Amino acid sequence: MATLTFQIDQPTVQAGGVLSGSFVLRTTQQIAASSVEIYFRGKEYTYIEKGSGKNKKELRNKIEVTYHDLGSHLATQRIVGGGYINPGAYEFPFEIILQDSLPPSMWVYSDDDYAKVEYCLRAKFKGSGVFADYEARRVINMLAKPSLERAVPRLVDPFVRRVNYLAAWEMGELCIGARVLDTELMPGQPAEVILGLRNDSEASPQKVKLKLQEIVNWTVGSEKSSKTRTLAKTELVLKNQQKPLDKQTRLELKANKHERREQNQRDIMNELQEAKPTEALRLPIPQLTTSGFKSANIEVSHQLVVKVMTESMITNPEFYVPIRILAGGATPTRSASPPVAQATAVVEESLPLADAVPIRDESVRQYPDFGVAAVPIPSKKD
């Protein structure tokens, strides 16, 4: 009987980094093997269901992108020296340099539709089993490449929103503007918003709601599906609450509404420019947020929703700010070398596999026929 397992150095890896570890073969009997294959592949799935009952139609799309295929490039080699493996335990270390452009692992549902990206590491000894070859699989959690930290602020120009009671009776208008301190954020960092507000209505703005939303769009041919979900939200009391106007004052201001709007917009712009970062409303980005990306059939994006809460049954104005969620991790370094297009592995001078020493021998034996260095595991008896 033989077993094959993976030992991974990193439970989570990042694009542009290194995936390293080893796969371990333990066998109590001599087994035949013509070659060994090692694969690291990414797969992108999209599924959309249309109709119901007899009219139900299932649309599937599966793109198997061979981001790294060691079986094709390095590790499918003919085993020399007889093509068999003696009883014992053997460890085969490997090291794979990952491409910068790999999308992160993800999975999202919308009713019966879904989209996902997943990665799998696989090793197989060809010709080693009676009915099926001995093999091992390991799902790898992938994060996008860490991004260079930089502040990308955004100014939301002041705009006017009418305020109505029960969506029918006019109560005046609010002038709202905002300054987002940074629109490119990593998980764990806070989204910070400085809000500017002028109240020319009979309503009383009391609180502000902040929400971070994730929007996932995917396709199968010409069909489309999407899912919007809230990842984080908070509710904050306005520090400088502005009192509502009485009806007479509101009507007097309405007579010169164009001049009033221009004045409010100028005041808000000045206020936003002079405001200190400590005055910002804050919403932390969850640590497990998937970074934004766009692949062949899947697109993940994010937005910040800012909603001004007034009284019950009165209009609550809101606006949206696109947010780019970056991959976390160490800040990458710039390199003049071209990106790595294929996986690499450690290859050293070797002895044929048939000459492998028994498990009790602690000396190192290396087998480049597998595209990696193999180290026999010492017995527990030693």
Could you characterize what this model shows?
The protein is mainly beta and 382 residues long. The chain has two domains: 2-145 and 333-376, Immunoglobulin-like (Sandwich); 154-325, Immunoglobulin-like. The protein has three helices and 23 strands. The chain has helices at 70-75, 247-255, 257-274; strands at 2-8, 12-14, 18-27, 31-32, 35-50, 57-68, 77-78, 84-85, 88-97, 106-110, 113-126, 134-143, 154-165, 169-180, 184-185, 190-201, 207-220, 223-237, 281-284, 293-294, 298-309, 318-325, 375-376. Strands 2, 5, 6, 7, 10, 11 and 12 form a seven-stranded mixed sheet that branches. Strands 15, 17, 18, 20, 21 and 22 form a six-stranded mixed sheet that branches. A hairpin with an 8-residue loop joins strand 21 (298-309) and strand 22 (318-325).
Largest sheet: 7 strands, mixed
Low-confidence stretches at least 5 residues in length (pLDDT < 50)? 67-81, 330-382
CATH topology of the largest domain: Immunoglobulin-like
The assigned structural class equals mainly beta
CATH structural class of the largest domain: Mainly Beta
β-strand amount: over 45%
Count of all domains = 2
Q: What radius of gyration results from the CA coordinates?
A: 30 Å
Q: Mean pLDDT across all residues, rounded?
A: 77
Q: What is the H/E string?
A: EEEEEEHEEEEEEEEEEEEHHEEEEE
The tally of helices reads: 3
- The CATH architecture of the largest domain can be given as Sandwich
The end-to-end distance, rounded to whole angstroms, is: 23 Å
Share of helix among residues?
A: under 10%
Shape: elongated
Number of strands: 23
